[in-house]
Amino acid sequence: MMLFLDTEWADSTSEGCQLVSLGLVGYDERFQWYAERDPLPLSAPDFVHQVVYPLLERGAYAMGDSQITESLQAFIFRVAKETGRAPTVAYDFWNDRALFNAAWHGPSGDLATIPPPVQWFDLNVLDPHYTNGLEWYFYERADERKRRHHALVDARAARAGYLHAIRRLAKEGI
Question: Which of 20, 126, 161, 172 is the most buried (most CB within 10 A)?
Answer without folding.
Answer: 161
